[in-house]
Each structure stands twice: as C-alpha cells, then as structure tokens.
Amino acid sequence: MNGGSFYPVSYSDTLIAFPSRRRAASASKGQPVLKFILRRIGASALVLLGASFLMFILTVNSGDPLQDLRESNDPNRDQLMAERTERMRLDDSDWERYWDWLSGVGGCFTGSCDLGVTINGIDVLNLTQQAASSTLRLITLSTLLAIVVGVALGIMTAIRQYSGFDYAVTFSAFLFFSLPVFWAATLLKEYAAIQYNNWIAVGQYAPWTIVIAALLAGFLLQAVLGGSARRRLVTGAATFGFVAVLLFAFNALDWWRNPMFGIAGVLVVSAAAGVLVTALVAGLRNRRALYAALTTVVVGVIAYWFTAPLLVNEPSWLLLIGLFVVSLVVSVAIGAAWGGYARKDSMLVTGITGVITSIMVVADVLMAHWNSFLGVKSRPISTIGSQTPNFNGEFWERVLDMGTQILLPTILLTLVSVATHSRYTRSSMLETLNQDYVRTARSKGLSEREVIVKHAFRNALIPITTIVAFDFAALIGGAIITEQVFGWKGMGALFQDGLRAVDPAPVMAFFLVTGIAAVLMNLLADIAYAALDPRIRR
Amino acid sequence: MTTLDISSSGPVSATGDAVLSFEDLTVTFRTEFGDVHAVKGIDLEVRPGEVVALVGESGSGKSVTSMTALGLLPRNARVSGTIRVGDKVVGGLDGRGLRNMRGNDVAMVFQEPMTALNPVLTIGDQLTEGLQLHGIAFGKQAMARAAELLAMVGIPEPERRLKQYPHELSGGQRQRVVIAMAIACDPKVIIADEPTTALDVTVQADILDLLRSLKDKLDTGILLITHNMGVVADMADRVAVMLKGDIVETGTADQVLNHPRHDYTKRLLAAVPHLGSGPGQFGDVAPVVATPEDLPALDLGKLVIEYHRLGKPTFRAVDDVSLSVAQGEIVGLVGESGSGKSTIAKCALGLIPAASGSVSILGNDLTKMRGKELKALRRRIGVVFQDPASSLNPRLPVGDVIAEPLVVHKEGDDKSRRRRVLELLDAVELPRSAYNRYPHELSGGQRQRVSIARALTLDPELLVADEPTSALDVSVQANVLKMFTALQERYKFACLFVSHDLAVIDLLAHRVVVLQNGRIVEQGPRDEVLHHPREEYTQRLIAAAPVPEPLEQRRRREARHALLTQLGEDVAELHIDEDYERPEPKRDEGGNASGLGGLGAGGL
Amino acid sequence: MSDIRNSNPGGEDYEPQVSVSSTDAVGLAAGGSAAPQPGEDKSYSQGQLVARRFFRHRGALTAMIVLGIVIVVAFTSIGVGPIPGWWPKDYTLQYDKIGDGAPTWEYPFGQDTGGKDYFALVMRGTQFSLIIAFSVGIISTLVGTLIGALAGFYRGWVESVLMRMTDVFIVIPLLAVAAVLGRMAGGDGILGLALVLGLVTWTSLARLVRGEVLSLRERDFVLAARAVGTGAWRIITRHVLPNAVGVIIVSATLSISTAILLETSLSFLGFGVQPPDTSLGTLISEYQAAFATRPWLFWWPGLMILTIALCVNFIGDGLRDAFDPRQNRSKD
After folding, report:
1. How far is it, in rounded angstroms, from Cα B62 to Cα C228?
2. Residue A297 has pLDDT above 90, yes or no
3. Where are the alpha helices (DSSP H) in A282-392?
4. Among partner residues A288, A349, A459, which is closest to B120 by beta-carbon distance?
5. Among B108, B194, B599, the residue to mutate for chain A (most A Cβ within 10 A)
6. Residue in C13, C4, A442 with CA at minimum distance from that of residue B94
7. Angle, nearest 10°, between helix axes A124-159 and A164-177?
8. Helix C118-154 / helix C58-77 crossing angle, nearest 10 deg
9. CA-based nearest residue in chain B for residue C22
10. Which residues of A fall within a CB distance of 8 Å from C7?
C-alpha cells in the first residue's frame, strides 16, 4: 500500500527508489494474478479498517463539538445542545459511535448505504456524492494531463541529460514541488484570471508582447530540439518568425475574441499530429503507418463535415461519446487495414491520431462558440466555484463555462504532478537506458528512437505506473487546499467543515472516498504492472 | 612498451582481407579523477573464419577495445586510431552509417545472457527486429527466419520459443538466443565478450562448440574476449595478450600458450590452475593428520534444506546430503549453479535452517542450539565468501573488520586486538598500513585477503569457503590460493571449500564431493573422483572443463564428443540445411516494424 | 588522428572501473610498467568522496549558501527568546504608517494594515516555520529509520505488523491526518505541532529504509557478521544502518521540505500554528485578501516558503547525486 499522501512525500519516494518494484516482483512472482489480486484486496480492506478506526477516534477527540453552542447566547441553548448530543450520540463511547458508523457503511454491501448525518442533521451520503463528483472531475483531468506532459518531459530530459533543457526542466520541477499551493493559487487567480479577463475585453496583443512571446517560443524550441549551433539558430529563428507572424495575424483578425479554426485548420493540425505520432511510434520509414495515419485524418475530417450540424446544435453527452467511440473504432480499423505485417504499430498510430483528430474537431466547435460565450459571460475565467451560478446558455456555452471554471485548479494540480512525473520518468528512463539489453539493442543497429521507444521506455513504464497510481490518491489529499482557494464545494470542503465542527460523519466520508481511491489505484497499478511485465504475468 | 609479435603473418598492417582491424587504437575516458587511458595505441586484426582471442585481466581494456568496433562507448570516451569493419572505417561513419554497420557487418555476443535480452519483449520480437531493420525479411517471413535461426543454434521447438519471454528460458538457451541474434544478419565478424563466463562449465562447452562450428560453417571472424585460458586454448587460432591498455604479445594459440615470450604472459599462464595436475601447483597441501577416532570438524547427516515460497510449492534445495570433514582436512564441494552447494555452506554456518537432518560441528549439533551456546560454537567456525566487493562492510576500516569477531566475542582489549590484527595482516601478506584503509581502497584480491584474515581471527577449527577465488583474476587467484594452502598448513583448520572450478579443487582438496540438483552424485578422495570418476555426471563435468593447453584441450574435446556420442547425445553445432541461403538485404517493403506495437498486446 | 563520434546520446555516462589503488599489492599486475592511473596516489574515504561530489553540484552548493543566509538572518535579526537581535524594530509593536505601508528603506518588507513592521513579522514566521520543519524532519527520520530497520531486518511477523501499521498511516491523506492532529495539538504550541507532524510523516522513509535494509541484510558482509555470532542490534547499528545512510540523509532532507509545506498549508487552513504564534502560512492566510491592495503582504511570506523549500530540495538532490555513484557526472 502506498498513496494517500500529500504530494511532496510521494516525491521523496520518486527521488530515491522505485517504491514497489521489488515488492510486486517478489510477492507475486509466478502466482496466478487473480489470486494475488484477491490477496491484495483482502490486505487493503484490513488496512482501510484500521485506518478508519484511527481516523474516527482522532477526529472525535480533536475538539468539542458543542463549543459553538456553549458560547452562544441563544435562549434555547440547552435544548439545542441536548438535541445535538442526541443526534451525534455524544454520550456514547467512541467505540460505539465508531461501530455505528461502520455498520452504516457496511450497509453499502447490502444496498442500504448510511454514512450518517452531519452536525446539522444533513444526510452525508448525498453530500458525498455531489462533492466526490466535482472533486473527481478535477483530479481525473489533472492526472491525465500530468501523465501525458510529465512522462513526455521526463523522456526528453533523460535523452538530453545535462543539457540546458534538462537543467531548465529540472529547475522548474523543483520550483513546482517547492511551491506552496495556496500561495501559487492566489497568484494564478490574479494573473491568469483577473488580468486575462481584463485583457480579453479588448483581445489585442501589444507589439512588444508579441516580440517577447515569439522570442521565448523560439528559444524554448531550439533548446528542446537541440543539435548543432547552426541548427539551433535556424530552429529558433524559424520559430520566432512563425510565432510573430501568427500573433500579428491573430491581432488583425481579432482572433482572440473571434477564434476560428475551420475544417482546414482541423485538417492541417491533425495531419501534422499524425505525422508526429507516426515518427514517434513507428518511424517515418514505415510508410504504411504514415499513410494509415493520414487516411485516418482525412476520414475524420470528412466525417466532421457530415456530422457538423449534429455537433453544433445542442448535442447530448451520449451522442458525443458515441461519436467518439465510433471514430476510435474506425481509426483502429484503418490502421489494421493498412498495417501489413506491422499491423500493431499501425493500429496504435491510427488510434492515437484518431483521438487527436477528435479533440481537434471538438476544439473547432468550441472555438466557434467562444464569441457567443463571451457575450453571455464577459469575464470568462472564473476564480471561484465549479460552475457559474444561474448560467444560461447553449450546450457548448455550458461546456465552455465548465471548462473556464475548471481551468485554474487544473493548472495548479497538474503543475505539481507534472513535476513529480517528469522527475520520476527521467530517473526511470536513465536507469533503463543503462541496462544491458539497451546496449544489445544498439548493437543490433536500432536507431535511437527505436531503442528509446521500444526497449527503454517499455521497461521504464513499469515503475512509472506505480507512481502515477499513487499520485492520483495523493492528489485528492492535495485537492483540499486547491478546493479551498478556488471555492469548490468538493471533498476538501466536506472534510474541512467537518473537522472544524468536530463532526465525524463528513470527515469519515472524505476518508472513505480517498481511502477507496487509494486502494483502487493501487490495484490498478498492480494490474498494470502485471500487464507490462511478463515476469509477473507468467 | 613494445609488442612482441611472433605470429608468422608478418606485420599487422600488411593485410587487406581482415574483417576487423584496429590500427593504433587509443581510448581515453574523462572521469571525475581526470583522464583514464583505457587503451593505448594497439593494433589487432581478425580475418574471416578465424578466432582471435583477446586475453587480459579485468581493467586491461579488452572490452573497451571491442566496443569501439561498434562505436558504442559512452560519451565521455575519446577514441583515436583507425578501426575497420570489412571495408568500412568506423570513425568515418555518421549515425546512420554506424547503425547500418551494427548487426549487419559486426555483431556482438555479450557476457550476461540474463540481462542482454529485453525482459518485456518476446524472443521472436527481439530476433525479428534486426532482420526487419536490415531489410532481410519482414512479417511472417521474418518470423520463419527467426525460427530457422533458433533451430540453427540448437534450440528445440523454435516456433514455441519465439512466443516466449527471456525469463522462461535457461541461461544456456538465452545465450544461444543471443548468438542467434548475432548471426541473424550474417555479419562478417562477431565480437564475443566473455560469452561463457556466466555459464556453467558443461553449458560453456556447448556454447564454445556452437561458436566453433559457426566460424567453420559461415566463415565468420570471431573476436573472442576472455580471461579464461582454457577457453582460449579451446577456441583461439591467434591470441593477443592485453595488459593495462597495451597488447604485450600476439601469436598463434600454440605460440602464446606453449611458448610465451613476454614476462606477463608467462606469469599469467603459470597462475592458471591446471585440472589433472593435482596438488602442489601453488604450494603443498598438508596431509590430514586426524585419526578416525577424532570427532569430525563438520558432519552433515541426511541434511535436507527447503525454501518456502509464497504461493508456490516448497523447493527442496538440498536433499539427503551426508558428508563429513575431518579435522585438518579440505573437502571440495563441487557442482554447477543450482546444485545446492552454497546452500549447504550457509547451513553449515547456521545462517539458514535445516528442514531435517543434522549439522554437527565437532560433535555439537548446530541445529539444536540457541543463544549463548550457539554463539560459543560460532567462534569455532570461520567463513570466506565469494564476492570481495560485498563481503566487507564498506563503512569499516580493515583493522575494524578483522577485529570485529574479537569484539563480538569480547576477547582481549584494544591492544591485544590490534596485535592480533597486525599478526593476521602479516599472515595474509598485506602491508600493515592496510590497517586504516577502507575496503573500497583495496583491490579485489586484497579484499579477499582481508576476508580470509577475518575468518581466521578466532583461530577456527572449521573454515567454510564459498567460492573464495571465483571473482578474482587468475593471477590474483593463484596468489590467494598459495597463501591459503600456506595458512592451512600453519593453522591446520578443516575446510569445506565450495567451488565450481574443478581445477582449483584439484590442487587443493583432500576429498571431493560432487553435487547435482541438491543430491550427492559422487564423493571420495580427490584422486579417485577427479581422475577416475565413476559416475556419468562427474565424467561429463570433468570432460567439459577446458585446460589451458591447445593440443591437450583438442584431445579432451574430442574425448568429450566421444563421451557425448556414447551417451547418445548430440554435440552442439550450427545446423545448416543444404539449401541454406545467405541472407541478402531486400527492398524495404513496409518500413521497419519496431515500435510501441506490443505495448498493449500483452494483457493478462 | 580521427575522433570517433560515439552515437550514444541517451547513454548515461558511466565510468570505467577505476579503483583508487588498482593493483594487488603482491599481485602480478604490479609487475607491469604502465603509466600510473590518475588518483592512484590519492585516496579518498567514503565521506570525502561524498563531500567532493556534493560540492561539485552547483545547484546544491548555492542552495546551501542561500538556506544558510536565510537561517542566520531569521534567527539573528529579531533574536530568539530573550536574546535580542540586530533589527531595531519589534514584531509586536505598531508603528506609524508611512503611506499605505509599502516597502521603504525603513520598512524593507513594508508594514501591515496595523502598521507593524512586516520584516520582523516575516522573520518571526520564518523562525517558527524553520523550527517546525527541522523538528519534524528529525522526528520523522528517527521514527522512520527505526521502524524501517526493524521491519527489514527481522522480517516475518515483525515486518508484517510494522508495514501494515505504515500502510494504515499511508492510506489516510497526509494533509488530512495532519489537519486532525494539528487541530488537537494546536493549543500546545509549535513543538507540540512539530511532534504530531513528525509522527505522521515518517511513512515513506520507513518504506525506503526497509527496502534498503532488505537488500543489505542479504549482503555477504552481514552474513559474515551473523556467522561470527554478532547480535542483531550490533548488526543493525554497525553494519546495516551505516550503509543505508545515503538513503536516510537524502530522505531526511526531503522530509524537511515536506514538513515546511505541510506546516504552512495547515496553518493556512487554520489547523496548524495558532495565534499568538505566527508562521509563514498564517501570514499568507491572514493577508491573502490584501493581494490586490497591498501585494507585499502576500509576496514576502510566500517567497520565503518557496526559497526554503527550493533550497532544501536542491540540497537533497545534491546529496542524492553525491551518495549515488551511478549518477556521477563526468563533464564538469
């Protein structure tokens, strides 16, 4: 078991050792995976039980639940106190109260969940459902983003070890784990929300801003791509020119208030992504994979052309998900059809390309609604709450509203996790790049891409799954602060309000959700482990 | 330093047909402590169908030399000189050219088959990737070719093996897979870096047979890097001896092994224990003086040791083993990996429990003792482990390490302890200044001397030595063995000497016990067991051990092949069909298939 | 002479086997007349090697200097307890406000809404945060090392019990259990808070130490010690723990950075340091609303936390590089 820790602790794990590689490898070697998983669930259940007892006892003893009434001057104070004592069973022993809570939770297995009531008599189960849904939405999004960005950064820094880029990412990673979240949140509110909202009212960049942004982009890209001084110079200059022209064009078109992408934009960006994915996954020499990716993009864009009316006018979530699934199936099928002997590679390439194309389509639709959204909500990025109260708009405007609400907390949570993941991936990659089989692969004549993607990364992934899973549970803990600063009514608020009032029911509900999430994520990590490592599987 | 070139082929540079040649090769590493010159201007070449052995002790730069041929040294290495693979000059190739050359023109067989294969990819994946990369076969054809390769190196059921992962194969089979991978693209030259060092002696003989038939049948040149003179005698056509980055002597195997000219080569050869020469090679072993009435120093009676593993059936590592070591006697415990020899040694030390049976030390049953009694008995046993890198606590200076047993048993005061330590340092021929040194400042041989000194601190009656010289270079091993026999003569301790090296046992032991899969196969006086073995397994073991003399080794090899044939087994060789076609690169039909494809495919 | 470019961009620089004195005293190799290996004449103890590597890590060295300055300034400026410091102003007194209290030469960090000298207040908060962070680091390291060493060395039921106990603590989000305990101990002053925080942050260290001990106990030198009859306690303290010191020190460093963020977060939420004591977290909590009008009240304590945590993390990174020889860099 691991998980459930506030983020910096999971970081200290990442710095020094791979926490559970040894454990998983030794405990389960040669066992049927199912038996192993059942054993783990059993052990986790015991641990959860112990932890819940500890948490309950600590919580009920952390203060006096009647304090606010004792200090009040209400005429019917005594009656209120008696009522509350009765409702919270304050006269019973801690053991009895814990047992009471536990039997309520045990009811969940028979279909009659009872998580108790709050200090004011509100049913906690209802509160928990609402809170958990908003918290999980936040956490899931940031976890996914953090995995993609963090792992990518980790690989790049491992390959360019001790380069300027590596040092810059390393420094940023340290900066992000050293950042007090509550403090950074306030900064983010000021600069990413309030200032942006002021700016979007006009939506024009000053010329010097454009120059600085283009310089920065050029500098970053040449640092990432590397190469000889000459090549770096060319990269930097080209990027500078491109970004500068683009931004001036955006100004001229008033793009920031009337963004548009269009089918041509979807086509160009998706095709570029397809080429990139092919280069990374299968290599550009694999023409079949490349053609498969491009076919996917073209089919996707044509499908967009035909389904556009459906998408633009009040679609339902079900329809969107259905379309996404269809596009995924079609993409993979295209890969299978084109693939030839390297079918698996092609299917992976087209699958990823299909997802990217779908995202581009959604992005296009969203952009088309941005202007009307600005009309409904003139200061788009919010600093408080998970939804704008009394917001009336069309489907896509509501989506944009949710997006702008979730933006800031997601950025914050993602940054911290990206820091952890990138460092962890880096050290894991460096470790595998030192292995004998990587040397064997090089001695066969494989290119660096193949050595890294196929030989090193697949092995490096094994310990990475562990940390990613643990981090999910850790993030829920970290979300307490984020939610507080951004005024989200999530699990964090439930916990804090409960603790302030010495009210065990909501605190324990928080514990249940985080504890179960930790256990589930651990289980997922074990399964991922077994899936990735044949030594455990057989 | 001048090179004594006594090979008949004249000056090295005058050949055009070499498949691999180094001219004036120099390699320098930039390190924390400044530049290290690993290779100092050597010349060497390998011709088709020829095995050139590059011999040297650890740190002589032989592996570094070989890696330069593939352009695979770490970034802090600087290489100068000319390296030619076929008609290509390695230094003149760009990244793409280098990659084209690797696998296609020059391939590598690494030392450690356990780690040289990627654990998460199937054997088939790893074999076909080179074929597809170099355009030899694609898709199903590549799979078929991979199966053919596995059959060639003598792996049964090749189609099924293709779907397996490396951990499902034995060490010998993995090394065969690595060899199959190396010959996949029909390279002109194969560099084999200690290809048999990690293997058991019988497996080693098979792999050497395979490599030999490979060069005969495919006319491949082989650069064989090894420290084992027996392997050199068995395989090499020509030999180059390396010392601290320089080649000090080259010549044919016969010239170098039988008529060495350079001092270093002479000393190196003199240091190799020779199976069949018996005791007296490195000092005389004292005869056993104990009478049968004396209590045996160690007596194992029907010993059974089991390992309990979670979720798996109990593994019986040692089964019904009875043996005894008389006072002052050296008993050699011989066996291949997994035979349970180290397990027995650990049990005799009381480090792992016996499932049943007895372990008597001078009449006291170790398995029945606890606490103080056990501690008192332990002071009569000393121990020396194999790995000098891990057998000394890196945080303690040598003096403390040797004095530790005295402190634990509360013997003497600081002064007398210091005296004892200095005395022991003299006994193991270490300078007294070593007293304040830390283990990492000592060489492997010096550390092993410290280990032996520590074992002797309490003047034990029984010494358990678990492969004490296996991790050492031959010259160091010879010195340690010399010292060991001298110490045994002086202190008259009994010794259970565990080793996989029959030659070492031959020169040291009074009696020999041969183990296989946890059971005793044969035991008796050294002369009987090692020179007139009765059991088939012992015969195989002895037949497979190479000796450092080419003619004798050829005779032994032929005798071994005769033995195998007599036992109805095949001699390992490359199986090539009549219609075998040399692979030729084809047009790249579907690009190279090597990507993340297998990523999600595993499942549960 | 043509230089060969080695296409090994991903490979980590490794070092060839350079033992510091590489010849066997009486071995054959000594007969060779090769040029002396660099470093042969100099020998370094393990501690010296670690120190040498650490001081070559520029980030860690800078961080150590900066952290040193922060600590010295925090404790000497306003003094500790009865000992007065060199800063002339008192953090409890309200002074006349200059303008809106923005930083001036007289009040370098500005003044708060009531006119208190903000530099003195921030130094006071820094002192408290540092004391808590270091105490937590020490307590959690001691507890974690003890539990990890016992579990790893004894195995069997001892390990099961200790590790399940660790799991119990791990499964509760650290911030949550710390908040509950902090609320209980809030009234006991900062040392009480440090104690309870130390008692919940040892878990990751315990797991790391256990892993390390598990591998060390199978090493030959531990087996040799056991074979001689060395007692368990002596083996743990003399043979096992000294060899796990790298992991412990690095982890201890990082637990300090965890502790400072944890304490300030708790204080920010109101479950940590309680008035009249003050910490950097409570300062931010108190003045976060003032960001728009008096940004300096918000910036200084946050930057202080960031600086301390960043320095500690960099020192930890430097120590890890220094203790882990695989991570050697051979370039600079």
Report:
1. 40
2. yes
3. 287-312, 317-338, 343-376
4. A459
5. B599
6. C4
7. 160
8. 120
9. B443
10. 448
Helix/strand/coil percentages in chain A, nearest 5: 80, 0, 20
Q: SS3 sequence, chain C?
A: CCCCCCCCCCCCCCCCCCCCCCCCCCCHHHHCCCCCCCCCCCCCCHHHHHHHHHHHCHHHHHHHHHHHHHHHHHHHHCCECCECCCCCCCCCCECCCCCCCCCCCCCCCCECCCCEEHHHHHHHHHHHHHHHHHHHHHHHHHHHHHHHHHHHHHCHHHHHHHHHHHHHHHHCCHHHHHHHHHHHHHHHHHHHHHHHHHCCCCHHHHHHHHHHHHHHCCCHHHHHHHHHCCCHHHHHHHHHHHHHHHHHHHHHHHHHHHHHHHHHHHHHHCCCCCCCCCCHHHHHHHHHHHHCCCHHHHHHHHHHHHHHHHHHHHHHHHHHHHHCHHHCCCCC
Q: Looking at the predicted structure, is the pLDDT value of residue B94 above 90?
A: no
Q: Which two tokens stand for residue B510?
A: 């009074």
Pairing of strands B330-334, B315-325: unpaired
Position B311 scores a pLDDT of: 61
CA distance B80 to B42: 11
> What is the rounded distance in angstroms from the CA atom of residue B57 to the CA atom of residue B59?
6
Q: Residue written as tokens 């200084």? A: C300
Residue with tokens 């046992």: B505
**A135 near A478, Cβ under 8 Å?**
no
A375 Cβ under 8 Å from any chain B Cβ: no
DSSP run (H or E) holding B524: strand B519-525
Tokens of A415: 């940054």
Question: Token pair 């908040």 is at which residue?
Answer: C179
Token pair, residue B534, equals: 């009765």
CA B136 to chain centroid, in Å, comes to 34
pLDDT score of C272 more than 90: no
Cβ of A283 under 8 Å from any chain B Cβ? yes
**Separation CA A314–CA A326 (nearest Å):** 19
On whether the CB atoms of residues C200 and C174 are closer than 8 A, the answer is yes
A198 touches chain C (CB under 8 A): no
Are the Cβ atoms of A538 and B99 closer than 8 angstroms? no
> What is the C-alpha separation between A299 and A307, in angstroms, rounded?
12
Closest-approach residue (CA) in chain C for B345: C227
pLDDT score at C307: 94
Query: Which residues 291-320 of chain C have a CB within 8 Å of chain A?
Result: 291-292, 298, 301-302, 305-306, 309-310, 312-314, 316-317, 320
**Residue that the structure tokens 């390291």 belong to:** C141
The residue assigned the tokens 């050792």 is A17
The stretch C133-156 carries a mean pLDDT of 92
**What is the pTM (predicted TM-score) of this model?**
0.83
The Cα B78–Cα A388 span in angstroms is 64
- Position A167 scores a pLDDT of 87
* 3-state secondary structure at position B330: strand
Which of A286, A440, A442 best probes binding to B when mutated, by most B CB atoms within 10 angstroms?
A440
Give B527's DSSP letter.
Answer: I
* Partners of B522 in beta bridges: B514
- Section C160-168 average pLDDT: 88
Q: Do the Cβ atoms of A341 and B119 come within 8 Å?
A: no
Strand order in the sheet with B494-499: B381-384, B462-466, B494-499, B330-334, B511-516, B519-525
**Are C118 and C95 within 8 A, CB to CB?**
no
Q: Which among A58, A434, A495 is the nearest to C12, CB-wise?
A: A434
Give the DSSP H or E segment for B37: strand B34-46
B75 with C11: Cβ contact below 8 A: yes
Residue C35 tokens, joined: 């040029």
Torsion of CA A195, A201, A207, A208, to 10 degrees: -10
C31: confidence class by pLDDT, cuts 50, 70, 90: very low
- Three-class SS state of B448: helix
Nearest by Cα to C305 from C327, C282, C289, C273: C282
Q: How many residues are given for chain C? A: 332
